[in-house]
Hints:
Low-confidence stretches: none
Shape: rod-shaped
Strand order of the largest sheet: 1-2
Structural class: mainly alpha
Order of helices and strands: HHHEEH
Amino acid sequence: MMNASLATAGAGYDPTNTLASSVYEDSQRGINNSFSDESFSRAMREFYQEYVEPTLREIADDTKRQADKNEQTIVQVGNRTVNDAVVTQQKANGYSFVK
């Protein structure tokens, strides 16, 4: 059994003080090693320019290319192209994807 006088002695182990010191030292270390507002802004700007912007540009280009594409309905049966059936169907429902 532990002697109570050893636990409260000045030179003894004090878990509360040790924990508080450890937390304080860790938080100070974290503050000293943290990003400044300027470096964080710079890192986010570089991330956007390097990854987000090119991806969005590719998406926009693909979307524009798809939207500007001249749509044609071509039906192939074997080696033959069936055009009359497609034209007849377009006339029947009155809907076409052309400009």
